[in-house]
Design brief:
two-stranded antiparallel ribbon, eight-stranded parallel beta barrel, 304 residues, NAD(P)_OxRdtase_dom_sf, AKR2_Oxidoreductase, NADP_OxRdtase_dom, 15% strand
Length: 304
């Protein structure tokens, strides 16, 4: 299994936060057409050796698209690791320019609603099931009844975990490590926002499965004015490949997600596996922003 995984956040709904997303999907905004695109990218991912796939209830119809792809390739399921997330609901209903795309709720009632939905859409249980985007204000880590229900799911063989976002990701990971329910984590890490790195190293040392998301900072790292983009251009390698390669080089990272929205994007991302380590070292410049500034900038990105 390659260390690169495929996240379907940009393939299950018509709009996403990645810079240039609407241009990439080129008008494929209706569910049927988007499902075909999603299947094509999944086929390319399989052919390239990718075996870790990531979805969520809030990724539009991503779970359904993945489930329909799995039904066509039933013999592939045992060779895949699939992660899904609960806690957000997709509310945009495939309407472009929707005022609100997703709504967060970390309640026991929401878990009771969304877990059966995930089982139905995927045609079975995921290997990893994460609370989506846990932040310090989330009640999820202190709700004992909710944690008991998650333990019950864990007893069926699914690893329970958290995904994190926001400027206090490290605090959330450290808090979750002390609870005893979780063994999987997915966090935003990239050269612009590396603050969670030491916490992820601790989680990895504790036996957790660590997944990196947003390794390209929603496209910001590959923009024209990026220092990493300048290094990639000078070396004659893909900007997105270099950004992913830097994340792949972190010793605690089990999987780094590609957020590819097209087959061409996926092929460019997979090229990260061939990036020379000397070039990776040269790319680890002091690009970090203050976490609060990074997340403020992210919050200003437009859904396209």
């Amino acid at each position: 299994m390659t260390q690169i995984g495929l996240g379907l956040a940009a393939l299950g709904r018509p709009e996403y936060l990645t810079v240039g997303h609407s241009d990439a999907v080129n008008g494929r905004f209706d569910p049927a057409t988007l499902e075909q695109l999603c299947h094509a990218v999944l086929d390319a991912a399989w052919d390239s050796g990718i075996r870790h796939l990531d979805v969520a209830r809030s990724y539009g119809l991503a779970e359904r698209f993945l489930g329909s792809w799995l039904s066509r390739h039933a013999n592939r399921r045992e060779n895949l690791a699939i992660g899904s997330k609960w806690g957000y609901a997709y509310v945009a209903d495939f309407q472009r320019d929707a005022a609100v795309h997703e709504v967060k709720e970390h309640s026991i009632a929401h878990l009771a609603e969304q877990w059966p939905q995930t089982l139905h859409e995927l045609g079975g249980a995921p290997d990893h099931y994460l609370i989506h985007s846990v932040t310090p204000d989330s009640p999820a880590l202190s709700d004992t009844a909710l944690l008991d229900d998650l333990r019950a799911i864990a007893e069926t063989g699914t690893r329970i975990g958290i995904s994190t976002s926001g400027p206090h990701q490290a605090d959330v990971v450290h808090a979750a490590l002390d609870i005893g329910v979780f063994s999987s984590v997915q966090s935003t890490w990239n050269p612009l926002e590396p603050s969670v790195g030491p916490a992820l190293a601790r989680a990895h040392d504790a036996g957790w499965f660590v997944v990196v998301k947003e390794a390209m900072a929603n496209g910001r790292l590959v923009a024209e004015n990026s220092e990493l983009a300048r290094i990639a251009d000078s070396a004659g390698v893909g900007r997105d490949a270099l950004a992913l390669a830097v994340a792949l080089s972190q010793p605690w990272a089990d999987i780094v997600l590609s957020g590819a929205a097209t087959v061409a994007h996926l092929e460019q991302n997979v090229a990260a596996l061939a990036i020379d380590r000397d070039l990776i070292a040269a790319s680890e410049l002091d690009l970090a922003e203050a976490p609060a500034n990074y997340w403020d900038n992210r919050s200003r990105l437009e859904w396209t």
